[in-house]
User: Fold these one by one.
Assistant:
Number 1:
Amino acid sequence: MMLFSGTSYPELAREVADHLGMRIGEVKLAQFSNGELYTRFAESVRGTDAFVLQSHVSVPGGMSINDFIVEQLVMIDALKRASAKRVIAVVPYYGYSRSDKKALSREAIAAKLMADMYEAAGVDRIMSVDLHTGQIQGFFDDPFDALTALPLLVEWVKENTSPEERVIVSPDAGRVRLTEKFAGQVGSTIAILHKRRDPEQQNVSVTLDVIGDVEGKTAILVDDMIDTAGTICGAAKLLKERGAAKVIALATHPLFSGPAAERLTESDIERVVVTNTLPIPEERRPAGDKLVVLSIAPIIASALRAVFEDESVSEIFRGENV
């Protein structure tokens, strides 16, 4: 078993390696002056199970999400050509996951294109955390391990709120199943936000009303990602208008693009609880003590060990995933 890291998030790879009691493998990653990427593994990988960890993110002033995707693909290709026994792509945040279907004619389904590229590169297995939609698993012919940060978020809620005061809120109809599962694990009621999204615009939606009782309660919004934070901040404002005492936002993936930091800082949200599937540069963090970051490394490390030892990954989550 060998673990390699791309350049998008080596800190998470080191944390995962520490949990496994191993080191990160040596690989030379470079970029030519015209932007092309170069990869060479500095040690033998013949006959190994090689795990390549790369989160799909854009770094301010650095490489883009597209660069990091190609870098991981080139690493997979190099490993296959160097006779690795199995190559497993570990993608804490799966890029283009929101492009999973056609909402309008002549649109791309980029999440399927991503799957095709990984298959063409020779990946034997892929692993990701809290996919935007579960159907993405079906885009792959090879095994897909759908991990979830739900246990981390559930534990935080149990430790920091009381059952009688909280209500779990779905930000839209598409997240009702996740909200019901979350509410069942923390023993709380649920509420649903009615939201309308403009298919002609990205990152734009309007929250229209609240279905359920939130008055006097701690409203806990649960979603898979926070991007520009417009939706989550608008939802928090509406919940406060409907009488919620406090609003807490939970999400697995902290994209925090564009005005997200400023919006979260100025919002009615008391706490923003996320995991470290993505790096959060200082300039993208909301001011003050609003942000709480939970480590996903133990879950990823457990999944890597289970795959290497040919054991059940779903047992990590008591047979469940999302």
Note: The first strand starts at residue 2 and ends at 5.
Number 2:
Amino acid sequence: MPRTTILSVVIPMFNETAVIPALVARLRPVLDALGVDYEVVAVDDGSRDDTVSVLFEHGRDWPQLRVLRLRRNSGHQAALTAGLHRAVGRWVVSLDADLQDPPETIAEMLRVAREDGVDVVYGVRADRSTDTVFKRNTARGYYWLMRRLVGADLPAQAGDFRMLSRDVVEVLRRLPERAPVYRLLVPSLGFPSAEVRYDRAARAAGETKYPLRRMMALAWESAANFSAAPLRLATWLGMSSFLLCLALIVFGVVVHVSGATIPGWTSMFVAVLLLSGVQLVCLGLLGEYVGRIYATVQNRPAFHVGFDSRDEVPDAETVAESRADFGPVVNARG
């Protein structure tokens, strides 16, 4: 793909065979109508279905479709990182394959970026009525918490649907982040930005890749990567425990002076449990950060590229063999 490419669309995929035909049917007309040189970087995150094969079938008559396959399932953010690092366009859009974020909005994003002279255009979900009540409430709680921890610069209801200039992408490539959370990392860079609002649609096909377990993991990654609040929580727990111990000491002295009998076993039992519990919580929080330091020192890559169709197009036998060699899917961070 030549360096004159204007637009790159990065799409992380994991077991998305069912939704690919609908995605291609909606995305290609939008990009063709822009009248600019573009590429679509479909990042297969170690799928175990026919995602890669279906992508190559569509790529036969769509030369702008580029397939980037990771050697194992590395997670959504790692797949997004691989696509951003390999994209060559002057503008790079990240888009999920489920069509909940409408591809038609890309044209509006490009127009706003050019006319307003900004480096980042966020896709903001104005209407989430197609989501469940639980999904809407947990999303609202997530953004409320992140704005308290990270700052008010975080756009509310802005996920991973955004457009970045080449300058922003190059900065992201140079950052030493091992497990980036882009919905927090990009606003923290401070580049000029704008918003494009849209109505969030229902998933076109397939199953969601963000169940409750992964949503909770994302919330923890966001809090731990961008705030020292968990460490401050350990400090406040320690201070609260200390004050409670002082109150218990005063209580014990008062009761002793009044001549009342205090069973020693009960007070000792409660004090030991209280102090031990707080210490274990604090050690656990500290251990999380020590573990991240350890992982950073190891400097292991967050993903491994199996092949890039821009460089070479493997035959059907090679694709089938690589799919068979994946084994059990591991939702690892790197």
Note: Residues 322-334 have pLDDT under 50 and may be disordered.
Number 3:
Amino acid sequence: MKNFTSPAWRIMLATITGILLASQSDAQTLTRKDADEIRVLARERVKGLNDLLNAIANEDLSNYERRYLMMNSYMPSNDQIFVNDGVIVEDDVDPKHKASAPGLDTPIEKYLSNFDLFYTKTETNTIEFTNLVVSDVKVDKYPFVKVFYTQHFKGKSNKDNTPYQPIARVAELRADKSGNDWIVYLTRLAFNSSDAARAVPVSPKPSATYDSLSRKKEPVVSQASDRKPVAKPEDAKEGERVFQELNKPNQAEIQNARKWGAIKLGVGVAALAFGAVTYSMLNKDYKDYKKRIDNPEGLTSYAKPGIYVSVGAMAVGLGVSLTSIFDFKRAKQ
């Protein structure tokens, strides 16, 4: 029989107790409101990834514009959605890759470049994420959450014109507190599996360039070195094409106005729907909260900042929807 009063066992018991208390302390610092805000922001980040891929696959963008979007997605900028340039992605650009396998881990810069190179460009959006499910927020070294979704690449690979199949993916995200607000960034993209669902995310290691920009607290877009490439002959031809397009008869302007009117209307309706759904979820939680508490606080106090997110989304949706009216009017002129 082991002697549980020996010094060695006392040290081990004290160590285990300390770890448990520390973990409980970390968990207690994350309130329900914090968790709700993190989950809402995580869902929006994954939708932002969907928008990024559609933008890269849009044939109307120039090569420079696509490179600009890709770089700003993982470097310090107002458009950043990945935590840094060290993020690793399980490659799904090849239609043959449908599940986790050795050798698929790809740095985010290369992954986006491969996607730009091999995914067929179109005028309309061909990428859609559906069945988004956001996990509970957990705390390890930092709060993290996972978003499970079904990815639909409706375009084709230009390698061999092979169509893609819907695949199950999981996005891992970490949350950091900045003042009174939470900031959520993607840390990994992978094929969904039992191992991926259970795994604790590892914070990607950034490059020296990323660290330098972060310390300066300046976004990539404001760096003096971030200038457009020197014009090449092909760039000159592209400029001539754009000039000719701009000087086409008014029919082109009419079509463009209709196109942007439809895009703005779609974005506005989506924002309104998101705001309404978020508000409904918060209101439902608040009703449940009132039943359990004798002197409950008001809805605005209880549900902030989530309620501000929902109201803000509805306001933005309404504004964008209204601006689409002007585009449609211009198309009729």
Note: The first strand starts at residue 88 and ends at 90.
